[in-house]
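in:
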């Protein structure tokens, strides 16, 4: 196939993906009212939908490059790259009653972090017949996955994190206790780019983040094909 024809064919595929993305973002769905531990086999075995894979998108916002914007309704996290562009990642978010919103900052970062489940979570899981460890060392079986960005407010730990997961099937679902889950390869990618102090805007219940203007205008076809 000649280079020009190949480029046209690839562009056609990418345009189809943009249309599928747009349809997916406007469709409504039900939110699972379960925890990751309670998820039935059909959910645990699900394949992450194509729309939640990492993409460069055309993105309008007044926020500065380097800002992270989390859209909990549509299950996307955006890293603002510059004028009219952002990297978009699929995420998993808090289940009903555990969603939140606000403006925070990355207070610290860790590779293969240990997990210290809060006492309230341990008590809740114990009532359901599951015993959580006081501390679990980092590793492939750790719920925090490969990387964690710890979210702080006013210099204090909020207890919320952006982190990887050992349950990649949960991306795109409402299953967490408020943390923002990413596929390990995606959180590793974000980790290298977002430094300490990065502004993180979480758009969710309560509107505590204030008025944030942004528009996802779909896949940036040429940057996706050629990079940059």
């Amino acid at each position: 196939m000649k280079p020009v024809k190949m480029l046209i064919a690839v562009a056609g595929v990418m345009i189809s993906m943009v249309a599928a993305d747009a349809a997916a973002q406007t469709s409504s769905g039900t939110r699972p009212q379960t925890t990751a531990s309670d998820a039935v086999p059909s959910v645990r075995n699900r394949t992450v939908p194509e729309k939640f894979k990492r993409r460069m998108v055309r993105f309008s916002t007044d926020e500065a490059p380097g800002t992270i914007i989390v859209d909990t309704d549509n299950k996307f996290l955006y890293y603002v790259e510059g004028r009219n562009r952002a990297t978009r990642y699929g995420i998993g978010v808090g289940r009903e009653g555990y969603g939140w919103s606000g403006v925070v900052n990355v207070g610290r970062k860790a590779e293969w972090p240990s997990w210290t489940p809060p006492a309230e979570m341990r008590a809740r899981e114990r009532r359901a017949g599951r015993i959580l460890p006081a501390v679990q060392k980092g590793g492939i079986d750790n719920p925090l996955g490969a990387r964690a960005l710890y979210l702080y407010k006013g210099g204090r730990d909020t207890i919320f994190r952006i982190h990887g997961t050992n349950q990649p099937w949960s991306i795109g679902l409402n299953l967490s206790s408020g943390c923002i889950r990413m596929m390990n390869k995606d959180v590793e990618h974000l980790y290298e780019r977002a430094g300490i102090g990065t502004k993180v805007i979480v758009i969710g219940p309560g509107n505590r983040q204030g008025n944030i203007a942004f528009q996802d205008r779909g896949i940036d076809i040429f940057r996706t094909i050629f990079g940059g």
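note: The chain has one domain: 3-27+50-226.
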